Each structure stands twice: as structure tokens, then as C-alpha cells.
Amino acid sequence: MPKLPSFFDKPESAKTDNSRDHQGRVRTVPHQHDSWATYVYCKVELSHELLALHPYLKDAEMLPEQHISLSRPVYLRKYQLTPFTRSIKAALRDIQRFDVSFAQISHLTNDEKTRSFLTLEIGHGYNQLHKCMKFVDNVMREYHKPIFYDPPRFHASFAWSLKQSTIASIRIPPHVIEQIVSNVFSIDKVYVKMGNRLETVSLD
Predict the structure, then answer these.
(1) In what ranges is there compositional bias, type Basic and acidic residues (predicted)?
(2) How many CA atoms lie within 13 A of 147 on its CB side?
């Protein structure tokens, strides 16, 4: 089962860690000069769905923004940022906008086993996301970076906890899940986040 990477704020800006600043989270990649945390993803707007889920989340923390990753987090040098963005835009130039919907709720844990997540796994739209991912993988190979998980489990995380038992204990009623998986979301942009930089790739 592929697991979620541990990926927080831009490493080029924070040289000290205080667990109180990150709700107990621990940085698993130490700060390095000129190291830009980079990943590629799609956004989904789940504000309405989160209102329905919130009463059942107990001690889990809500995530403020939901996205569907198309890459692992990687680290680039500053001189690589512009050409990397150009490569991603070129790789996705023929991708048409498409719709996605979710199929189920799952529990996932990050690679370092420091956080566990509640996620919505993609059903409809999986093949289109997979196509995007393969193009992104090709760019990652050009930069000698790790490609995405195989097989990929495309998902949007919406809550997390430091304790796996907290996530595992959450029970969401079937009628709430059914309402969420019946919704359709449009994917018309891909985002490239590089430290404090954000580039947008518009799909046709």
C-alpha cells in the first residue's frame, strides 16, 4: 500500500523547529540551504463535504485545503525551478480538463509513520489522473527524482492525527459517505508548488 509523504512548509524559510508551532508534527527532512520542496497536484474544493464530515472527526485535525497529488515531494535547487515548471507545462499541454469523483474513505499513514490521515480515494477520473501522473513521472526522471507510487492511490486527505489509533477509531455513517461520493469535481488546473512559489498549469 503506498503511503503519504511527510510534507510541510517550505524548508528554505524555517531553520528551527518547535513542535508547538506544528501541532506536534516533527520535521522529517532537515533544513538545507537552497532546497525547495516541490510537488505537483490538483485542487478539489471540499468545503461543503467537510461540513458534513466534521461532526464525526473526534480528535483528528481538519486539513485546511484538499488536493490530489500527482507527484511525491521532491527537492530542487533554485536554478531548477523555472525549467522544471516549463517541463511540467510542456508535458501536460495536451491534457484536457476532466471530472473526478470519490469512491470511498480510507486510512493512510505517511512514509515516516509520523502522521495518519483520513482520505477520500478517487473512483471516477482515475484514468485521467493516471495519465497526468505518467507525464509528471517523465519529468521527474529527467531531474533524477523519484516517481510516484506504483500502483498509485489518488486521494484527497481531509483530516490527520499523530496517532494512528485516532484515525482508525473514526466512524462515518454510510449516508454521509454516499452523499460525498455522489458529487463530481472538475479538474481544470494542475499546480506546481515550489517552496513559497506556486505555478498554475491550465488544462484545455
Answers:
(1) 9-24
(2) 14
Q: How many domains does the chain have?
A: 1
Q: Which of 54, 124, 155, 175 is catalytic?
A: 155
Active site annotation includes 33: no
Question: CATH code at 45?
Answer: 3.90.1140.10
Q: With respect to residue 30, please indicate whether it lies within any of the assigned structural domains.
A: no
How do strand 61-62 and strand 155-161 relate by DSSP bridges?
A: antiparallel
Q: Is residue 6 situated within a structural domain?
A: no
Q: Grid coordinates standing for 40?
A: 505537483
Annotation marks residue 155 as catalytic = yes
Cα-Cα-Cα-Cα torsion 85, 191, 94, 103, nearest 10 degrees, comes to 150
Catalytic residue among 33, 67, 107, 175: 67
C-alpha distance from residue 173 to each of 42, 52, 106, 177, 179 (Å) = 27, 10, 14, 7, 10
* Residue 44 in domain: yes
| pLDDT tens-place string over residues 79-102 | 999 999 999 999 999 999 999 999
Q: Which residues contact 67 (CB under 8 A, 6 or more apart)?
A: 41, 42, 43, 44, 156, 191
Q: Which residue has the higher pLDDT, 51 or 26?
A: 51
